[in-house]
Amino acid sequence: xxxxxxxxxxxxxxxxxxxWQAWYAMSEEERRARDAEGLAALKAWDxxxxxxxxxxxxxLGPTKRTSPDGVSDVVNELTVFVVVRAPSHEAAARLFENHxxxxxxxxxxxxxxxxxxxxxx
Length: 121
Description:
It comes from Nitratireductor pacificus pht-3B. The protein is α+β, with helices and mostly antiparallel strands.
């Protein structure tokens, strides 16, 4: 595999969705238990995919947008990212099937896209 086999995976989540509303409606105790379950599952996913993770990435914080109108605070659905290596775009996307971010945590999806370099042409 070469540089063309590198993919950016961005986890998305609409914090006003019904899934998040259900998450917010949990008791503190329920949420802590679900967090513990999810964090253990994430750790297991990372360990199982250690050989294809190029960059671990991590959670994304508050967003500032710069445009012709200046700099402003915005809210988007980007929540977490990771960079992986796979033999194809399809294979990269399949790495995230049944991922804990949306099977345990209330995230919506994972968008996977190739990282294009200057010779991708």
